[in-house]
What we know:
By secondary structure, chain A is mostly helical.
Amino acid sequence: MFLLADFSVIKPDFGLIFWTTIIFGLFWFLIGKMAFRPIAEALKSREDDIQGALDEAAKVKEEMKNLQSQNEQLLQEAREERAGMLKDAKDMKNKIVSDAKVKAKEEASKIVEGAQREIENQKNVAIAEVKKEVGAMAIDIAEKILQKNLSSDKDQVSFVKDLVGKMSNN
Amino acid sequence: MPTFAAILKNIVLSTSFKLVFTFIFSLVLSFSVSAQDHDNGHDHDHSSHEHDEHVDQHLSCEHAGDHGQGEFDPGATAFHHIADANVYSIGPLQIPLPCILYNKNSGFDFFLSNKFGFDRIGHGDGHYAYKGYVLDGGTIRLIQDVNFPKEKTSIKGIVHDSEDNAFVCMGDQMYPTYKKSTADFGLFGGGITPFFDFSLTKNVVSMLLVVLLLSWLLIGVARAYKSRQGLAPKGSQSLIEVVFAFIQDEVAKPFLGKHYMKYLPFLMALFFFILGLNLFGQIPFLGGSNVTGNLGVTMVLAIFAFLVTNLSGNKHYWEHIFAMPGVPKPVLAILTPVEFLGVFIKPITLMLRLFANITAGHMVIIIFVSLIFMFSNNGTSYVGGYGTAIASTALTLFMMSIELLVAFIQAFVFTILTASYISAAIEEPHH
Lengths: 170, 431
């Protein structure tokens, strides 16, 4: 008989309250433990994974960029070094050449100096020798004069002239 | 993304929302009161009619057991269909359910409700009394007379006096019955009687079915996350994940901040439990169980929300209730009672909002279907019947799609409000 049915849903039934408490309580406890928590954790770990992967990618990109710029720098450095080395070599060459020139000049001047000194020495020796020779000749002449009786003046003069002629012939 | 949750929080906590809700609630109450008034008026005629014949009880019991004689009453039909029952009715088909009954005289009784010998295709009225109990329109009642035979006894039928008073007819005798004990403290016409019904009723069975289904689904998804670690979600995983992530990211995290993991299982359980039952009640030809539209069920959920909120309330929360800092003493005299009442009003609004929404949805659909019977004049007017059938099918379809939306919205609102209450309870002082 529906005719007199009442609005019973507004009257909380103890049995329904009892069963709802048990069923919802179990659902909360068991499914919370077996499903909600694991799902939340799985979602969180996946989120972290994705974030991690994205961060990693960004980091790698940054690193690549760094590496590239580093390479560029290295190349630049190598180029600079090469230029430096070339310059050094050139400088060295120039220095060696100029050094050699200087040294050669010095050597040459030394040689010239030596030669001059030798010439001087030779000259001095020659002069000394001439002096000695002249001395000896003078003595010789004097001897000869002394040995020849220089009786007359005429003889004396011819004799001296003869001597001098001999000497100048020498 | 705090904007969405913040806006919702503002809406929910705004005074206009409270006003609107108070209005709706008073409407629901006035509706139920007027419905009862209507019934009472109706019954007064009936009972006075019966009083006339009270001298000859044989006459009043003459029509017991007959159905379909009276005029079609859409309101009563609706009340009957949204009510809980000790049989599971799918349309006219009645499926027996286990009964666990307690009364002060004979203690606990366990049996299956087919002991009452109701028709499989019928209204759920038992042809037998068993252990002093009878089945009246799917609901078990206890016969007041302790001397009534305890063994399976054939009865002639059940007649109703006033609104909820039923009498069992056996032979020439009329035996008054007890109503079930209800936890409304007489507020809605119920109260404590010597008879308690802890049966696995239609609502309990629906709840069990939904919870088992949800458990199977959710545990399967949880397993999938473990077994398919590092793989993209698939199948039911993708289905659950969308809903799960929505509640987690739009409800739990914005409201509860770093404490969200502690309350997440509770909020998820609330959401999935309510949503599952809301949707289960919407499935056509499956009994249309009105579980979340039963005040007992929403009361339990609200009590859980109340306990979780207040048991996790910190010093700051209680201080704001009993001694709002920076408020002068005379104002506190007004404010503290208001705040204290608020502690209870919050779960009460949760309870009533869900109950009223779901019950209203069920009733509207029943009324639309009832229109067919009303306009066809109990099958006498074909034009009225077929015409209304087309119109009311369209209306019912429309209503059901709205109810589908309501099912989600109410589950969401219950969850987000609970989250906001918990958030107020665990909020740290920031000044």
